[in-house]
TrEMBL record:
Protein name from the UniProt record: Xylose transport system permease protein XylH
NCBIfam families per UniProt: GguB
InterPro entries assigned: ABC_transp_permease
Record GO terms (molecular function): transmembrane transporter activity
Main location: membrane
Transmembrane spans: 36-59, 71-101, 113-132, 144-164, 184-209, 230-249, 255-273, 305-325, 337-356, 363-381, 387-403
Protein's organism: Cellulomonas shaoxiangyii
Amino acid sequence: MSTRTEVNISSPTPPDLPRLSIGQRLQGLGGNARQYGIFGALIVIVLLFQVLTDGKLLLANNVAALFQQNAYVMILAIGMVMVIVAGHIDLSVGSVVAFVGGVVAVSMRDHDVPWGLAVLLGLAIGCVVGAWQGFWVAYVGIPAFIVTLAGMLVFRGLALAVVGETVAGLPSSFISISKGSLPNVLGFAGNMDVVTLVIGALAVAAIVVSQLRARQSLRKHDLHVEATGLFVAKVVAIAAGIGVLTVILSFSAGGTPVVLVLVGVLVVAYSFLMGRTVFGRHIYAIGGNRLAAGLSGVNTRRVDFWIFVNMGLLAGAAAIVTTARSGAATAQAGANFELDAIAACFIGGAAVTGGIGRISGAIVGALIMGVLNMGLSIMAVDPSWQMVIKGLVLLLAVAFDLLNKRRAGTQ
């Protein structure tokens, strides 16, 4: 007598899905929740100081000065975030700024080099400095911390040798790089500079088009996109921010600062480099897992080398902007610039361990530092306490980021 065995062919009960933490749910949004938080923090800090300074922070001339005074931080932060994403650090940029600025100033004053050629000379020297440090990091294998610490001493010493005393009397055309504004060729609309309004309108249009194209590209490749409401809110917020900034700047004495245009071009170019090119993807891959990137065919040494060449180039650009703003070169120029750039990157969301960071985040971090500087100065806070406050802001920003990552990984 055979025994019949019945088999249950009904579909098995699916296992319970794990509950996602709040941090993981936020990360599931199309955008980076950390980036949204950084923008929100910038807005809160601006509004706070606008109240504490009795409305002086957002005066038109103060807003223009904010960009002129902090352009060097933004330029250095662009290069520094690439270095940090790749898992390195650069402690020498302040000394490089002093050295390159000294060479540029001496070449113009003592050797009658035209200011345009002197600018190219400064950028070229920055590239050579970056290649020198990149060689030791990429091909000799010395940690970047040690190489750039040595570079901080070497180039500060060279700055002292080149600039024995303050080098002043620089050409006005050179000084206008940092202190000048775009010429008002379109006149005024009331008291508003029309050139500034046109630039702002073009910037808003470019942002909207780029965001729509990026969203369409994600959908075309069946990738996750953020909710429509969140996407619209993000685009509207960015456009509104640019619009408010444009209107305020249009009332300033000179309109759009030349250096703001320079920083804007660099932000667009390097955002494209990091987000849309093979080189940019290689930088993120190396920062995420250097060994895996190497096994995948990434030439890690070559990428590391060019990262430091690029950092040298941007340090040269920062040297030109700094020297033009002060109208002179001194051996003490660039003091603590490396700390400002590193702080801007970490406040802007770069990970200490590498692999994470955005150009836009670094710029927002630089603006946060700049608003703190200007707001505290308007309030006549002692410089020593300003340093304390900025240090605490940096510490809290990194601690907040680490706590969020731990929470997302454990809940």
